[in-house]
Write a structure and sequence with these properties.
This protein is mostly beta strands and 478 residues long. It folds into 2 domains: 40 residues, no CATH class; 434 residues, Methylamine Dehydrogenase, Chain H. Helices cover 5% and strands 35% of the residues. It has 1 helix and 33 strands. Strands 14-15-16-17-21 form a 5-stranded mixed sheet, with no helix packed on it. Strands 1-33-32-31 form a 4-stranded antiparallel sheet, with no helix packed on it. The radius of gyration is 24 Å and the shape is globular. The N terminus is likely disordered.
């Protein structure tokens, strides 16, 4: 090649920098034109949603509680608004968690029309129902993630509660779910409601009286709490109640029932999890008499495990080829690691800690309220008194056992993780920020200055905390 025809940028740093700037500028000018001529499917229809952006149901995608891909804050101050983007008042007691799709945040609430409802938090064993049977409105809210502005609100139902709640619960405990086109809100006996993304009611379903309470003392009504999950055009619900427990799949287009499978179990408050491996997908649920997996297409029972704590609340989570399920109340507080290829009855025999399908188990290391978190190479399980245990999820070997807080106050919200950090929120509104890994290290303790019962959401590095009276957006300053 003649000397004057050789690419000059190979031997000229100045021209090389000029070339890079030219290409960058050209791309910025051409990309909008190219995008306008391309047929791009809506975000709600893509197989793999953008990492760290959508948080579509309780604890985010597959209930894993993880939203990596963006930096998240370690420190913030609600009083000075340092690293706080906005703070929006939301009426009600603040139990259901926020969910996110793109720039929209959705949440629900039950609002006492006649005045303020009482809430009793802390570590106590009262089984009585709260006296909160005046007129309520069951609300669904859509909020702009960037500004905190309420874009729309809808009253799903108005009336007196058909079932009482626990003194530590609300009449709207279930977290909504969204797929970017629909928003599904479950209010137990008050019904299941589906809206489009702009707040128009598409359909509603009445399942009759869904009475969740202590099976030992049926008069003690505690309120419904299992949240819906959306998967490939279907809504999955778990209704473990005093009589007539079931799990079901509904068509998200019109609410029609695709299948319903009866469950022989006492009331539970856990949200189902979708587990997919290859071409096989199952719905996995927690339970007392019936932890189990169901075929996502037919509702057929695939496997069953008994012997957990008798008030199951935590949601199943999957990682490292295993499914982790925990509960804690009564005689037992187990933490199970289950192989999702399980078949039939896999209940452990007396004295066993593992079998063909139970990779390992640990008792008493289970959690009463919090869903466990598997982040990287470690499994974190925290009890409501703040005792945190870290395990190797593959073997069950304990890495450490430490305490969050004084042990005199409760932790109900489940942990979430991002950017190498784990966030634990106490009922008193203290948020403990831990460095993820084999060493126990608290990086910061931030105070929300309100009761916090809901699990936070994470989207694009923004932490969304639902307090008793507000939705608070925490993010690094630009």
């Amino acid at each position: 090649m003649p000397e004057h025809h050789r690419p000059m940028h190979r031997s000229s740093p100045m021209l090389d920098r000029w070339h890079r700037r030219f290409v960058s500028a050209a791309r910025s000018l051409l990309l909008p034109v190219v995008a306008a001529t391309m047929i791009i499917p809506p975000a709600s229809l893509t197989a793999d949603p953008p990492k760290g952006v959508h948080w579509p149901s309780f604890r985010g995608p597959r209930a894993k509680g993880i939203a990596d891909g963006f930096p998240t804050p370690t420190h913030w101050d609600v009083d000075t608004m340092d690293n706080v983007k906005w703070k929006t008042p939301i009426p009600g007691l603040g139990h259901s968690s926020p969910v996110v799709w793109g720039d929209r945040v959705f949440l629900t609430s039950a609002v006492n029309v006649t005045g303020e409802s009482d809430l009793q938090v802390g570590l106590y064993g009262n089984v009585e129902s709260a006296k909160d049977d005046t007129m309520h409105r069951w609300m669904v809210y859509c909020i702009d993630k960037k500004t905190g502005k309420v874009l729309w609100e809808q009253t799903a139902h108005e009336g007196t509660p058909a079932v009482k709640r626990h003194t530590k619960a609300s009449h709207a405990n279930s977290t909504p779910a969204t797929d970017g086109k629909h928003v599904v809100a479950f209010f137990g006996t008050e019904g299941l409601f589906c809206y489009d993304i702009e707040g128009k009611l598409k359909w509603k379903k009445d399942f009759g009286k869904l009475d969740s309470g202590w099976y030992v003392e049926p008069k003690a009504q505690w309120g419904f709490a299992s949240s819906p999950v959306i998967h490939k055009g279907q809504v999955f619900i778990q209704c473990d109640v005093q009589t007539g427990s079931f799990i079901a799949a509904l068509d998200i287009k019109d609410g029609s029932e695709i299948w319903r499978t009866p469950r022989d179990d006492v009331p539970t408050w856990s949200t189902p999890t979708i587990y997919k491996k290859g071409d096989k997908t199952q719905v996995i649920v927690n339970g007392y008499k019936h932890i189990g997996g169901y075929d996502v297409k037919t509702g057929k029972e695939l496997w069953k495990l008994g012997g957990g704590g008798d008030i199951p609340v935590p949601t199943p989570v999957s990682a490292h080829g295993l499914v982790f399920i925990t509960s804690a109340h009564g005689r037992k507080a187990p933490l199970y690691a289950i192989r999702p290829t399980a078949k039939g009855d896999i209940t452990l025999e007396e004295g066993e800690t593992s079998n063909k399908y139970v990779a390992w188990s640990e008792d008493p290391s289970g959690a009463y309220m919090q869903t466990p978190l598997v982040y990287g190479d470690y499994l974190y399980s925290c009890r409501d008194n703040g005792i945190l245990k870290c395990f190797d999820p593959k073997t069950g070997e304990r890495v450490y056992r430490k305490r969050l807080g004084s042990g005199r106050r409760g932790l109900t919200a489940s942990p979430v993780a991002a950017d190498g950090k784990i966030y634990f929120t106490s009922e008193d509104g203290d948020v403990y920020v831990l460095r993820a890994g084999a060493e126990f290290e608290i990086l910061a303790t931030n105070h929300m200055h309100e009761v916090c019962m809901a699990t936070p959401a994470i989207s694009e590095g923004m932490l969304l905390f639902r307090t008793q009276h507000h939705l608070v957006a925490v993010a690094e300053e630009d």
